Amino acid sequence: MCCSEYICTKPKCSNISFDITFGFRTYHNGIFFYLTNSDQTEYLVTQLMNGQVVLFFYDQENGFKSINSTAIVTDGLWHTVSVRKGTKRIRLIVDEGVELRENIKRKLNVISPMYVGGYPDGLRPHPEVMDHSMRGCLRDFQLNSNPISITESEVVSGTSPCFQKVEPGVFLTGFSYGIYSQNFKVGDGLTINLEFRTNKQNGIFLTISDPGGFPAMTLELHNGKVKMSVRSSEDKFTAETVNDPYLLCDNKWHKIQASVIKNVVSVVVDDLENAYGSSGGSQRFSETNSQLFLGGFPSAIPQGAAFTDAGFSGCLRNFVIDNNQVDWYQLVSSVDLHKAACPVENL
């Protein structure tokens, strides 16, 4: 889920006493649920911060208070949370561990709706509330032992099903792509590092192309081999790995290091021999100023250096561009990217 990804539900909830329980699985921080009133004068939020479950609340009798669990739970495993409000105290229990408690007013001024997993873009919560949604999976969400039904919720925005088993990374369907930058400049040099897992022989990792087809640059999997290609105004040159065409589509993790420096491109995968390509002269890769796509590209924007138009199908992780780790949640835009985790089952 991001903050436009949430579930808005209107359960029958007493503001004097209630019991909210749920299970979650994630590698990331984010909001579990948010309760407030129309003026946000009082509120209660449970979220993950620094890998720990934290409950924040504000009431006009006791002021701002928080309850912090100590266990790190951003490990991709299933965990449980219980938030129990009574007439004098509120309690937080994580994984049936130690009960943590704080004083709270008898009648907290919060009303429906309850925002689960995030909140709408138009809502501007207090600074203590995280600015992005739950990035993972929620299950068995209950209020006073009554399940919260997604299908019966008032609004469901941006949510998607969970995979049964996961590991860190992002999952792409073959029709997915993200825009890393609207005006990315590739000058004399660029380095790319990433890890991938797929059962396909073709797919785009990264690509950029100015209108007209050049200058352009593409890092891709083509016929089972990794290619780093550059097209300048004069020619196109490519570095291509030498390997069996089925070696890299075995649904196991592989590591790529690629670069373009002036008129030379290079790529190395795992322990394979380095591959190089050059323009054969002094011609350098001209500077680009176009959209940089990750994982694929829209058919309406052809890429002058690409050998394939197939989007990547599989998992990516540890994607680094010029020493900058790609934050998939901070892309300019994306289509059909599963950012929370990668499925472990066969792709």
TrEMBL record:
Disulfide bonds join 315-342. InterPro entries: ConA-like_dom_sf (IPR013320), Laminin_G (IPR001791), Neurexin-related_CASP (IPR050372). Residues 1-162, 167-342 form the Laminin G domain. SMART domains: LamG. Keywords: Disulfide bond. Transmembrane segments: none annotated. It holds the Pfam family Laminin_G_2. It comes from the Eukaryota. The keyword Isomerase does not apply. This is Laminin G domain-containing protein. It comes from Tegillarca granosa (Malaysian cockle).
